[in-house]
Amino acid sequence: MSCCGKNQTTTKSAGLLAKDETIVIGTGVFLVPAPEKGVLEYRTVVVENLSPEETIKRGYNCTAFRWVHPNEMSFSQLSVARDCYGFCPTGRECSDPRCFCDGTSNWCR
After folding, report:
1. DSSP code, position 51
2. 46, 79 contact by CB (below 8 A)
3. pTM score over 0.70
4. What is the pLDDT of residues 58-73, one digit of tens each?
5. In whole angstroms, what is the distance from residue 28 CA to residue 25 CA?
């Protein structure tokens, strides 16, 4: 998967999923608008026990989303708040699975 689309599943999680021969349940991470914070502000919602397919369905109306393989990062790790920073050039991904690449500015949020 790549930066700046709605589905920002990391290359690592996609690779781990491709190697798995069983049904894998991981964590969905969703970027949604947060109008209570201000204009163009967002918040992250983390949901455990989701398949990749269910994550895609639930992410349909979100700004961005990703499915995270349990071997990349656990639900409890993903649930820890994180300040996202850094540049994500087109075609790249943010270094932390809790952060999303903003396709308009190419900065992690």
Report:
1. -
2. yes
3. yes
4. 999 999 999 999 999 9
5. 10
